[in-house]
Amino acid sequence: MGANMARxxxxxxxxxxxxxxxxxxTATHLATELGCEAAASPARVAELANIIFTVVTDDxxxxxxxxxxxxxxxxxxxxxxxxxxxxxxxxAVHSEVETLVTQHGxxxxxxxxxxxxxxxxxxxxxxxxxxxxxxxASARPLLEKLSAHLRHIGQAGEAAKVKALxxxxxxxxxxxxxxxxxxxxxxxxxxTMLRDIFAQTGAASRVLETDGEDxxxxxxxxxxxxxxxxxxxxxxxxxxxxxxxAVPLAQATYDQYHRLVTLGKGELDKSAVSELTFKGRNSP
Length: 284
Prior knowledge:
Elements (H helix, E strand, L loop, with lengths): L1 H10 L6 E2 L4 H11 L2 E2 L3 H7 L2 E4 L4 H7 L16 E4 L5 H13 L3 E8 L2 H6 L2 E6 L2 H11 L3 E8 L3 H29 L4 H9 L6 H12 L8 H18 L4 H15 L22
Parallel strand pairs: 1-2, 3-4, 4-5, 6-7
Antiparallel strand pairs: 5-6
């Protein structure tokens, strides 16, 4: 996602000065393509750039790159910088980062993404933003180059709550679709016919469009991993726990994705949840 966002910004005549990835080869390849520096650390990116986009895996990774004491921390050069943080994280972490950045003289905005790798490349993401209104306003012209839909949700952490719910419902829909198609296959139904009928009835969903054929054909090249689905459903479950609300469908979906991860299939696309519901597939 981050690489395609960088490509998109370069296409829109923004200057990319540095990229960083913990996989040095990945960073070097992308930097060569973009004509910029392959930074040796997050701190080096912040040293060179005025606006820094972060796209990381989870809460632990985010805390690591914004560590107040880390020698590689982005905070070493936070003064007068704007950090646009795009990962799906716990809302509290986005709030923590805003506090740390502000304490070090910078500005922070969460810009939670809904969309695919292709949409990142095309600049058609849905960006849900959280942070101070003036920070959002200053970042808006740049974010419009990455998005077809751009929305300020509220203070830091609020956009992360919305994104957690988006992914919770998406994951539930994906798991339900896997069960519907798995049962259809077990009943001997033509799955192409079944998907067509789903699309024209109350069974329609966005994941039917993106994942239905892949489930049928066992094509699980990764666009959004099962491991990320488990992580994001887990964030939503923690929010529900805090709110004192039972969400049994979300819990069942989390359990399915957690099972995939346990089986060593976490790096497959989220469509691989169908491997647990189709008879004769490699599920225990």
